[in-house]
Structure formats: C-alpha cells, structure tokens
From TrEMBL:
Belongs to the cation transport ATPase (P-type) (TC 3.A.3) family. Type IB subfamily. The gene is copB. It comes from the Archaea. It comes from Methanobacterium congolense. This is Copper-exporting P-type ATPase B. It is found in: Endomembrane system.
Length: 287
C-alpha cells in the first residue's frame, strides 16, 4: 500500500505543478548536493530575438547575411532558429539540410554550401572571425552565430535570450539550503559568464557538446555528490537520465520529458526548490 504521507504529497505536488514520473528518484531529491541547470530554455526562456547583424565580407551586405541564415534556419527547430523566423527579405530554397548537434546547421542554397555555426565550430575548422563589435556583443551575453558561404565567413548574427524571472530567486534559495548550483551549456564562455553573474551561480561549464553533458554529470557524481539535472532539450536527455534526479522543464521537448523523473509543469525554476522541500518533508515524516 502507498503510505498516507506519500499519497498526500502526490496530491500536493500535482496541485503545485510537479509531475512525478519516478517516485524513487523524487525521494532521492531530499539528499541532493548539487543542481546542474541547462542554460537555454531552462534558466532562460529560450526565446531568442535578433539584435544585430554584422557583415564580415566586402562582397556581402547585411541582407545577404540575413537571407542566407534565415532560409537555412527555417528548417531547424532549435530555439536559435526560431529567432530567425520572419526576418528574411528573400527566402531561398534549401537542399540537403542537416543540423550539426551543438554546433549549427548546414545546407545548399543556389548550389552553394551554406552553414550557420557557433564560434567554436569556426575555431575547430581553423577559421577565426573575431572583431571588436562581436566581442562587445558577447560580453553583453548575446549568442553569436556565424554565416559561412562556400567556406567564406560572410557575417554574423547576434541573438538575445531572456533570463527567466524566477531563476535568480531559485538559485538563491537552493544555495541557502546548502545545494550547489551549476550551469552547463553549449553556448560560449562569455555568454555563460554573463548569465552566471546575473543570477549568482556557483559554477558553470561552457561550450559543452550534447554528448558531453551526461559525462559531466557522471564526473560530478563520482566526486561523491548526489546530483539533480534540470533541462529542456533533446541534448539534455542523456544527462537527465544519468542524474540521480532528472528534472524536465514542462515546456521542453518530449524527449527531455520522457527522460525526466520529475516534470516542472509550469516550467518555473523555483519549482526545483519546491521539489526538494516536498521530498524532504514527505520522507522525513516516514522515518
Ligand atoms: P544549449 O546547451 O545552450 O541548450 P545547444 O547545445 O543546443 O545549446 O547549442 C550549442 C550551440 O550550438 C549554440 O549556442 C549555437 O552556437 C550552436 N547551434 C545549435 N543549433 C543551432 C542552430 N540551429 N543555428 C545556429 N547555431 C546553432
Ligand atoms: Mg536547453
């Protein structure tokens, strides 16, 4: 039989927007030492908007940069891609579209190979495209993607996301409860640093590739910590499964929700605090 306190907590959790998919994991959340948060869509709303377009080639103007990138991004479901919707003056037909997980997208437009990629991807391919303006935008926490046509970096687009209103408060409360708060993101160090400073994280890992996220969790666990992972993306699913408690953002992808032990129906980071508190009060009464 289900102990009374447990069924009471089930009712309480449902009322407060928690969906508990795995009770044993939920129970473990009373002993959590660290919460690892994904950035985009978890600590932030994951709703990007374009703030700046920069040209980096004398043969291409800002419209070129936008038209190529927006056409390509119309095939992607990534939050960054959604930021491009309705920006192109001209939309090109795209062939052989492919996404490069954690790095960008590519395809053929008018017979030319076109890529929209992360700064890290450029560096990997020994291309460097830095300028003062882009450095400044990075320091403001903006995400930069580069537009590459036939191997030439023709420009860059800066996009801004919004930090969720409750993120800072959630971090503060968790820290007061003796829980370490860490962020893990595929985005650049400057952006991670900016978000971290805004909300008071203990630590962050930046430029982490999708397949490396679960590995990072394992690393933190092997140092002896009981770990919760909070995320929303397809690329967070393995990390959610690896964590002692996987907490999925309700507005996130189906893949993340399937991998979660607890689902935050309201997508509110403060509900991570509530999860831990509820687990602590539920299971202390049972002992
Ligand atoms: P996060 O860990 O913040 O959720 P991802 O792993 O999904 O981020 O993506 C990491 C980086 O890969 C992004 O910051 C961006 O530079 C690049 N990227 C991913 N998808 C796209 C896309 N559709 N267009 C351009 N860049 C992308
Ligand atoms: Mg995310």
């Amino acid at each position: 039989a289900v102990p009374l306190v447990v069924s009471v907590s089930t009712a309480l959790s449902a009322k407060n927007g928690l969906l508990i998919r795995n009770r044993a994991s939920f129970e473990r959340s009373r002993n959590i030492d660290a919460v690892i948060f994904d950035k985009t869509g978890t600590l932030t709303e994951g709703r990007f908007g374009i703030t700046d377009v920069v040209t980096l080639s004398p043969d291409h103007d800002e419209d070129d940069v936008l038209n190529y990138s927006a056409s390509l991004e119309s095939y992607s479901e990534h939050p960054i891609a959604r930021g491009f919707a309705k920006t192109a003056v001209k939309t090109y037909e795209v062939h052989d579209f492919r996404s490069i997980p954690g790095k960008g997208v590519q395809g053929r437009i008018n017979g030319k190979h076109v890529e929209v990629v992360s700064p890290g991807f450029l560096t990997e391919h020994s291309a460097e495209a830095s300028n003062e303006k882009l450095d400044e935008l990075s320091l403001q926490g903006k995400t930069i993607v580069f537009v590459v046509v036939e191997g030439e970096v023709i420009g860059a687009v800066a996009l801004a996301d919004v930090i969720r209103g409750e993120s800072k408060k959630a971090i503060k409360k968790l820290k007061e409860m003796g829980i370490r708060c860490i962020m893990i993101t595929g985005d650049k160090k400057e952006v991670a640093e900016w978000v971290s400073n805004e909300i008071g994280l203990d630590k962050y890992y930046a430029e982490v590739l999708p397949h490396e996220k679960a590995e990072k969790i394992r690393e933190i666990q092997s140092a002896g910590a009981v770990v919760a992972m909070t995320g929303d993306g397809i690329n967070d699913a393995p990390a959610l499964a690896q964590a002692d408690v996987g907490i999925a953002i309700g507005a996130g992808t189906d893949v993340a929700i399937e991998a979660g032990d607890v689902v935050l129906v309201r997508s509110n980071p403060l509900d991570v605090v509530y999860t831990v508190k509820l687990a602590r009060s539920t299971y202390s009464k049972m002992l």
